[in-house]
Amino acid sequence: MGEMKKFFGLLFVLLMLLATTGHQNVHAATDDSLARIQKKGTLVMGNSPNYPPYEFQVNQNGKSEIVGMDISIGKQISKDLGVKLVVKKMSFDSMLVALETGKVDMILSGFSPTAARKKHVDFTDSYYVSKQYIIINKTDKGLYKNKNSFSGKKVGAVVGTIPYDLVKEQMPGAKLVGMENAADLVLALKAHKIDGLVKDSASALAYASSDPGLTTINGKFEVSGDEAGNAIALPKGSTSLTLAINQSIKNIQQKDLINKQYLPEAGKLMNTNTANTSMWHYWSYFAKGVGYTVGISLVAVIIGVLLGAGLALIRIGHTKVWHALATAYVEFIRGTPLMVQVMFIYFGIGMFYDISAVVAGTLAVGLNSAAYVSEVFRSGIESVPVGQKEAARSLGLSTKQTMQSVIFPQAIVTIWPALGNEFISLIKETSIVSIIGVADLIYQLRIVQADTYKGVLPIVVAMVLYFILTFGLSRVLQHFEHKFNHAN
Q1: Which residues make beta-bridge pairs with 158?
Q2: Rounded to the nearest 5°, which phi and psi values hold at 132?
Q3: Domain residues of the chain, as ranges?
């Protein structure tokens, strides 16, 4: 127990150091922030491309490209700064952490400068101001006039956005339904799971114009100050970079590029998406998602088996210190959510080493799997009768020879089915890596939903693909299981 307490004590100290370092990194940006970006030659932009017309993906000739009003603004800013724009995709609720930990240089993704966000990051001037509309089913058009018409009704909004706060503050009689993805909320609205969906006017009109079953009303929300508009978030203390970007925003507004060029271009590209919304048209998206899912699963399986087997051998050994450390690792990993582990590795370790989202996600899934695999190995080995070990030792076999020739061949019969279940679960668990922008099957599903305005069909395709993967793997595992049983 003493060793375990020391381990958790060291872990706590490490977490505190990470938090302190991250806090220091946030405030390390000074007036050289612009010079550092120009020296680096790139401006990394955090973006969640499922929010048309601000940001979304188009599928042209089998190739995917992120486009939209915010992307056009980002390109103009990078041009003015004399650097190359790099768009880093990730979930909306991960972007603030990404900015604070240095994964991105700015957030340009329909972000509003709320008072809570201003405590952690700096904001540029607002580049676009829109009203807040409520999307409703066209059949309900006569029932609702504004936000006051939804007393006792369910109203949806994307978690972490201005509309989400507005529903809480200015629609007290409504029941708030929060989700992380706008496409899911639109699907819920069309299925009559919610009665209205609050979004900014540009996005709301985009959804309504692309779906004949939807329409919009002006919510007549009261939004004060800068929170009424969208701005670009930058690390705390980025004074020189903020001033430079503000100058670009001023030039964009003076030329009225948003209304004259950026929004019309986004509208045309949205029409391109909705011109062909068949799932076959998006086969490359799903194929890419399957590729990432399978690749991450295979590497994570290797990590999980090797590390898990090692942990199991340590735990059945007699070295107390190593036994305590292995036990602490297994209990800690099993006692914390995989989502938190993914974010910790990507953002936490990322403060010291620039680790990619794919590597971080794969490593997190593999390390998580190892904790469960170790228990599978340990229980399988311990299920072999003690007499087998004693008999082998009496014949003069060493501990290593006993394990290799007597214990493990018998244990594998017990281990294999449980190990197979863990492999199958691993394929499904990889979906969690989409939160840090890994283009797995779930991430691609979200993109197709946003591009085509179809909620159910992309889900069905993803379900079928997951089933094919897991069913095929289960048949292969059963084949080897039968072989093991016949051999014994």
Answers
A1: 179
A2: -105, 120
A3: 31-129+229-275, 132-220, 281-487
The domain defined by 281-487 folds into: MetI-like fold (1.10.3720)
From the number of C-beta atoms within 10 Å of its C-beta (0-12, 13-18, 19+), residue 400 rates as: exposed
Q: Does domain 31-129+229-275 have CATH number 3.40.190.10?
A: yes
> Do residues 230 and 294 make contact, with C-beta atoms less than 8 angstroms apart?
no
Residue 404 gets which letter from DSSP?
I
- Of the candidates 20, 92, 85, the residue with the CA atom closest to the CA atom of residue 436: 92
CATH of the structural domain 132-220, one choice from 3.50.50.60, 3.90.960.10, 3.40.190.10, 3.40.50.300: 3.40.190.10
Q: What is the DSSP string of 47-113?
A: E---BTTTBEEEEETTEEEEESHHHHHHHHHHHHHTSEEEEEE--GGGHHHHHHTTS-SEE-SS---
pLDDT per residue as tens, the chain (488 positions): 454 444 444 444 455 444 444 444 444 435 789 999 999 999 999 998 878 889 988 876 667 788 999 999 999 999 999 999 999 988 887 888 899 888 999 999 988 888 888 888 999 999 988 888 999 999 998 899 999 999 999 999 988 788 898 999 999 999 999 987 787 888 889 889 999 999 988 888 877 877 788 999 999 998 766 566 889 999 999 999 999 999 999 999 999 999 889 988 887 887 776 656 778 878 888 888 899 999 999 999 999 989 988 898 888 877 889 989 999 999 999 999 998 999 889 888 867 777 888 899 999 999 999 999 898 888 877 777 777 766 766 777 776 777 767 777 777 777 777 787 888 888 888 888 888 878 788 888 887 877 776 768 888 999 999 999 988 888 887 777 676 666 55
